[in-house]
Write a structure and sequence with these properties.
Helices cover 19% and strands 30% of the residues. α6 packs across α11 and α8 runs parallel beside α9. The two termini are 37 Å apart.
Amino acid sequence: MFGLEKPAGQQEPGRSGGLPKMASVGDFNVLSSSIPATKVELSVSCRNLLDRDTFSKSDPICVLYTQAIGNKEWREFGRTEVIDNTLNPDFVRKFIMDYFFEERENLRFDFYDVDSKSPNLSKHDFLGQMFCTLGEIVGSQGSRLEKSIVGIPGKKCGTVIVTAEELGCCRDSVLMQFCANKLDKKDFFGKSDPFLVFHRSNEDGSFTICHKTEVVKNTLNPVWQAFKISVRALCNGDYDRTIKVEVYDWDRDGSHDFIGEFTTSYRELSRGQSQFNVYEVINPKKKGKKKKYVNSGTVTLLSFLIETEVSFLDYIKGGTQINFTVAIDFTASNGNPLQPTSLHYMNPYQLNAYGMALRAVGEIIQDYDSDKMFPALGFGARLPPDGRVSHEFALNGNPQNPYCHGIDGVMEAYYRSLKSVQLYGPTNFAPVINHVARYAASVKDGSQYFVLLIITDGVISDMAQTKESIVNASKLPMSIIIVGVGPAEFDAMEELDGDVVRISSRGRFAERDIVQFVPFRDYIDRSGNHVLSMARLAKDVLAEIPEQFLSYMRVRGIKPSPAPPPYTPPIHVLQTQI
């Protein structure tokens, strides 16, 4: 009834469901892409809850619901314990959730006064609820969100405080080195060519491959190179889980000979180089056949070093703000906004492609920007009153202050502009990139990071200048997302993306890959479910941002600021009821 983890098998579509159960030595691949997202732990406290009990105070419980992407159905995720007789509970039981920057995870916290042992919530008194997103909690100062509880008309229902803490084991990596002595000789004409294969055990007793060392040729006393592996990949954060290590002799044809194996655990390995970390390599078949069999050699741990990776959330928690700017293509190739065939068509009943892309990306990023004020620019239009062409104009008509309040404010300014400017041309990207780069160049201390979203129908006129701007911007704390709308060929955009060939200008290469391009048409849901289209689009365009962000911080040697001190609930003096 009170389980907090998602039941196994309820993986959400598109999320990696852990690693394959078993892999043979031959098909080993790098596993980092299969490791799940960061896990965060949510702690819940309430202040001044409604009192529903006549002779004592309420006995509150918190129930968390999540919403599946693309439909509005709320599913129960878990429950806290019940705390008797208090209006100011600090719940001990936590909610542990996967965190994906690029996804909008809607949450609902419901509060009840528990009156019996029944697990059926309708048998208990409802105390109110709070809605938010996981991004809102993580993006709040110190990853601590305080919000009013609502849901009972005419009543003040108190406040809820939710704090997010990234789970440490997600981020520790270990650097280990092993050597071996007197391994069995397996090759007819020479010594063995040994390598190690590491497996972590699963809950059901099966094993999953998690690392393979290089092969050391022609020796029975190999020293392997040190290797780095995340604690999650090695033991899923469980320090006592069995780790099985197999020793093989490499053969060119892939039929590697088994030398032997041993088992250990993260806790044993963490003792470092010592007599505890010299392992006998045992071949069970040989042991069963030969009475005098001792072992097939020994493997020794030479070094064990724990490294904690700093994460995107460390910077967000330390106060780094993500500044979001949007730039919209107002060139004539989009078509007349009054015609239904136009990409800028102002349909009173549904968003056009520009509106969908803007809302999909903006609604996620806005959680990480505390003032929710976003500069919104347009390019490629003739402006009133004199009809001059501009490639960098404020959608709200105020060049001194192009900021709009929230994504709704940006949408409003976009629709207003469509009524006042004349779509024209050419399609120049460089001015809006340079606009954001000027701001990014003034804050290089890691306190701010800039994301520019360009939405365009794709036929770019200033390719050389845009490449130059991107190469210059790659040294700055900024990323560029380009969403292509409409049916055009987007070959030029693919070139700017730089995933295949790193972008260059006049012989200079970009320091980092900072551009992510996607064509909107790839995300249109055939069933007409725009919510799903927008969720998929946001997932793909935002997935690279945390790594681009970290690559800037790493290259510059910028460490996260310390998070504000953890919240300690005030001690409430119990008041006697009159």
